[in-house]
């Protein structure tokens, strides 16, 4: 192998291109097992972000199930999830354009189950005994009022909008039928809680006429989060609860809730979307599950009789969406070097088999930076977590005594988390000589309830402190160049980015993707699911209006002193475009270098390949202009207002 070329950080040539990210970056959204057949949804950037249901059969044949332009995506809670189910080869799915439910048999055109109207459906389960679906319905018929969420039964004859089974609360999720079809379990919660703050688990009896009676709450409350209720094959109700401060597994039988495996680990996730799964039954006596410790997801087998947990050695460090199959278990897995994949685990041979990869492009490991889990000191004598990715490119070395720029990533949510899964966007930067710090700031999930609750009342403070302290920690270690620190983030991460640039003087540049600049505007403009989210993160509005203004970057643009680029979908309902546009105008008037890249037809998160490619390359171009390096890529310029002439 030739000796590495010596070139400045940021100027290295890399095979990980923006084209590769945008065209090969299809996402596997959901996975469903139907006997030995496997179904999943692919988000395809090259089809304008269409969500396509795909089927894989044991003879290894793969085919699209729904024809274009059908798009299997639900807008319940805006974030959706659990947009389809399958039973004996019949697919029931939501279509994005009209939000109606459709029924489809193999090779046939999807047929509508629900009439036209401003109704949305998600998280369904088939009640075969009564020839109906039971699912969450979100009613937007009254445009002047808040949407109404209920659990409904939808007849499979396609003649009704649904019979309401459960109503009265603000939110519902996870309706689950017992194996004999006589009992229904579900989750529910009310404003101002989000499901990870507190939710309740209920059960009820289903009569022969399909009605629900004798309902009772069995677990949960305003301070206890419930996740993924499931019935075992022998009719025992299992679920995840964080009643001890950690999301652990429990079961309810004979009127008693009992723990299965209490430990300082998380068997749950924040329920941003429907249909999430961290465990599955392979028999009444055995559960295959995944849990996370220190940001790494592990696979395990749990004996429900002895309650003994046994680790299963796995090459995957990010594991989700567990499903049982006749031969074993199915899940979505990835690692630092393996792209997101649908994986089968054979319980007999103990072997892993990849059914489908999100990307079939093989990348030489010499271009991949392996994340290093770090803890660093932050405010109040606490520690925070992050993954550090140093620059890596087998073909290049930096000049002696040179230090790389650092790009700090503040993830969205903010009650979410980053992981060690292979992310080509991160590798795009590191393979060009730019280091990355992916921060799980206080408020992130995966480290227990107390860590999540660090952000309560402190959004815009704790998250910003942790991103700042993470960057300074690496500067003090001599790992990165303190004069070339940038921060980027999307949605809530965009808010953290804008706050860090406004209220701190550490970063020298930033990139906001559909980020929040006006917290008050978010309370007025956002959708139902998040409309009271800020009550816990900031405080009740309008009572705490002063706090909202104090933490809104739009009101303090005079404190900004570094360049900023903003990316925005013009059809975003979660963070409307006017927030970005107000920020851009303020920066232009202030005379700071600013660039604005809006995208027609995009919503909250970019799905079209051409827009994904453009945003990645525009961000690199922006940093190159700000930090003074010359990329190896041929990049389309971005208009940057107020940029001083380059010397």
Describe the fold and architecture.
With 647 residues, the protein is an alpha+beta fold. It has 3 domains: 36-275, Neuraminidase, CATH 2.120.10; 277-362; 364-627, Rossmann fold. Helix content is 15%, strand content 35%. An 8-stranded mixed sheet has the order 30-31-34-33-35-36-37-38, sandwiched between helices. A hairpin with a 6-residue loop joins strand 8 (101-104) and strand 9 (111-112).
Gist of the model:
With 647 residues, the protein is an alpha+beta fold. It is 15% helix and 35% strand.
How does the SSE layout of this entry go?
Blueprint: E1 5-6, H1 18-23, E2 27-34, E3 37-44, E4 50-56, E5 62-64, E6 84-87, E7 90-94, E8 101-104, E9 111-112, E10 119-127, E11 132-139, E12 148-155, E13 163-166, E14 171-177, E15 183-189, E16 200-206, E17 212-220, E18 226-231, E19 237-241, E20 248-253, E21 256-259, E22 279-283, E23 286-293, E24 296-303, E25 309-312, E26 318-325, E27 328-334, E28 341-346, E29 352-357, E30 372-378, E31 382-389, E32 396-397, E33 406-410, H2 424-430, E34 435-440, H3 449-452, H4 462-476, E35 485-490, H5 492-503, E36 509-513, H6 519-525, H7 533-537, H8 545-550, E37 564-569, H9 577-590, E38 594-599, H10 609-627
Parallel strand pairs: 1-32, 33-34, 33-35, 35-36, 36-37, 37-38
Antiparallel strand pairs: 2-3, 3-4, 4-5, 6-7, 7-8, 8-9, 10-11, 11-12, 12-13, 14-15, 15-16, 16-17, 18-19, 19-20, 20-21, 22-23, 23-24, 24-25, 26-27, 27-28, 28-29, 30-31, 31-34
């Amino acid at each position: 192998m030739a000796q590495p070329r010596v070139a400045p950080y940021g100027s290295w040539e890399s095979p990980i291109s923006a084209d590769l990210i945008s065209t090969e970056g299809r996402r596997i959204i959901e996975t469903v097992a139907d006997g030995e057949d496997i179904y999943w949804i692919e988000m395809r950037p090259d089809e304008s972000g269409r969500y396509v249901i795909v089927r894989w059969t044991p003879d290894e044949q793969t085919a699209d199930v729904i024809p274009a332009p059908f798009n299997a995506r639900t807008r319940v809670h805006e974030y959706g999830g659990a947009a389809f189910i399958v039973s004996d080869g019949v697919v029931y799915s939501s279509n994005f354009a009209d939000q109606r439910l459709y029924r489809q048999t193999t090779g046939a055109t999807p047929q509508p189950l629900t009439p036209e109207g401003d109704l949305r459906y998600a998280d369904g389960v088939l009640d075969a005994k009564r020839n109906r679906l039971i699912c969450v319905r979100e009613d937007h018929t009254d445009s002047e009022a808040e949407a109404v969420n209920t659990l409904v039964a939808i007849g499979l004859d396609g003649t009704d909008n649904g019979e309401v089974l459960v109503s009265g609360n603000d939110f519902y999720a996870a309706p689950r039928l017992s194996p004999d079809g006589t009992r229904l379990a579900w989750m529910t919660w009310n404003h101002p809680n989000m499901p990870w703050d507190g939710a309740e688990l209920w059960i009820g009896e289903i009569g022969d006429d399909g009605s629900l009676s004798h309902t009772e709450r069995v677990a949960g409350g305003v301070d206890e989060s419930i996740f993924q209720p499931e019935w075992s094959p022998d009719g025992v109700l299992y679920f995840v609860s964080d009643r001890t401060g950690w999301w652990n597994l429990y079961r309810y039988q004979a009127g008693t809730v009992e723990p299965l495996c209490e430990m300082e680990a998380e068997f749950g996730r924040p329920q941003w979307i429907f249909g999430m799964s961290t465990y599955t039954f392979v028999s009444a006596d055995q559960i295959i599950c995944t849990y996370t410790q220190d940001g790494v997801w592990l696979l395990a087998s749990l004996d429900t009789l002895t309650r003994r947990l046994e680790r299963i050695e796995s090459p995957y460090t990010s594991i989700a969406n567990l499903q049982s199959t006749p031969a074993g278990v199915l899940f979505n897995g990835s690692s630092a070097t393996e792209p997101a994949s649908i994986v089968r685990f054979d319980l007999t041979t103990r072997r892993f088999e990849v059914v489908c990869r999100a990307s079939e492009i093989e990348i030489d490991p010499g271009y991949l930076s392996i994340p290093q889990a770090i803890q660093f000191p932050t405010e109040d004598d606490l520690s925070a977590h992050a993954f550090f990715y140093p620059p890596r490119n087998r073909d290049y070395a930096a000049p002696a005594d040179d230090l790389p720029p650092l790009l700090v990533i503040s993830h969205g949510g903010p009650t979410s988390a980053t992981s060690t899964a292979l992310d080509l966007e991160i590798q795009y930067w590191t393979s060009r000589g730019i280091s990355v710090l992916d921060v799980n700031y206080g408020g992130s999930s995966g480290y227990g309830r107390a860590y999540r609750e660090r952000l309560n009342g402190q959004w815009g403070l704790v998250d910003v402190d942790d991103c700042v302290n993470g960057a300074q920690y690496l500067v003090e270690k001599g790992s990165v160049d303190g004069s070339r620190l940038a921060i980027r983030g999307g949605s809530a991460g965009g808010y953290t980015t804008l706050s860090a640039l406004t209220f701190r003087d550490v970063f020298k540049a930033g990139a906001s993707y559909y980020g929040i600049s006006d917290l008050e505007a978010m309370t007025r403009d956002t959708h139902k699911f998040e409309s009271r989210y800020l009550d816990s993160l900031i405080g009740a509005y309008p009572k705490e209006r002063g706090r909202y203004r104090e933490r809104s970057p739009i009101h303090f643009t005079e404190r900004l002193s570094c360049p900023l680029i903003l990316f925005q979908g013009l059809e975003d309902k979660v963070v409307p475009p006017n927030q970005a546009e107000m920020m851009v105008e303020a920066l232009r008037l202030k005379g700071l270098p600013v660039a604005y890249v809006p995208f027609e037809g995009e919503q909250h998160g970019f799905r079209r390949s051409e827009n994904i490619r453009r945003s990645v390359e525009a961000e690199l171009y922006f940093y190159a202009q700000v930090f003074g390096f010359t990329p190896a890529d041929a990049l389309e310029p971005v208009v940057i207002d107020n940029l001083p002439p380059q010397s």
